[in-house]
Give the backbone structure.
Amino acid sequence: MKPGIATPAAVLTALLAALVAALAAAPAALAQDAAPPQDASPPRYVVDASWPETLPNDWILGQVAGIAVDDRDHVFIVHRPRSITADEAAAVQNPPTAECCVPAPAVIELDAEGRVVQAFGGPTWDRERAEWVAPAHDWPLTEHGIFVDSERNIWIGGNGEDDHIVVKLDANGRHLLTLGIPGETGGSNDTMRLGQPADIAVDAEAGEVFVADGYGNRRVIVFDAGTGAYRRHWGAYGERPDDAPPGTYAPGNPPARQFRGPVHSVALARDGRVYVADRTGNRIQVFAQDGRYETEAFVAPATLDAGAVWDIALSPEPAERWLFVADGHNKKVWILDRETLTVAGEFGRGGRQAGEFNWVHNVAVDSRGNVYTAEVNTGKRVQKFRLAGE
């Protein structure tokens, strides 16, 4: 054999060795390709001031107390017609005092472009008697929270002093079910009655509805989503709720063993975690769906008065990496890393211009990652924030 020239056997051996090495490296390479991006930067948002389109029929919104997105990226809002002032609804006074405006129905469905698809429900204004007329079926006096489930049923809570109910409607607004008993409450361990429920989330696979209960009670309660039968409930740290006042909140003090309340939001993740907003406790508590406590985190813990954690929504990608937290008192939306529950970003500030907030009460996210917000108090509007660069 001449120096520097390999034999056929040597060539074959070298090829086999290279093939073995390549096969050994392939799983690692595939795993590296399949790994999620490691960019720790949160998404950035800009307001879309063109959304939604002008409402028809000279409609005007009251306090918008709930917002949700369905599987078609249609946006559903529930507002409070009774919060509309006589000046705002001048066209329906007797006699009319101005050309505009008219109270909109309580529930409005908007398509992704911001056009009204349908609207229904809630009280209607009787011009002759100058009073609100309640619908024929159960309906809260003060609307609070909305959820659209996988069957496109619509769930609405109510935090009025005597509401104590959640109503379930079909996609066209027909009443299907009432959770709780109108006008009756029985404390945080009553399994039939609610206490000014604030928010709703439905697990379609388990057939269960989770209720953030609420302004009067200090718990999460779970019912059968079809029949309304009681399943289970729990308070802070997964313990039995206690309605005794927890004392005044002070930054730096040990956290209360019960929810300070209102228990203002409940959100379900694909991995089975349940996220609960304890608004004036400035905290999010995380549970398994059976109520077992996992962890908690605090957001803007120096916030006093109305609290910092008002509503919770999850980002749409499979891992649901980000939590969006509406903070009505600090007038912004926080972005949290879902695994660490640390603040990674924020957007918004107090004000009345596009992209600013009064009391940002609710937040929802569509399949493209666009964020929608709802405002109460004197804000009385919805806004859309799209991902920067899109």
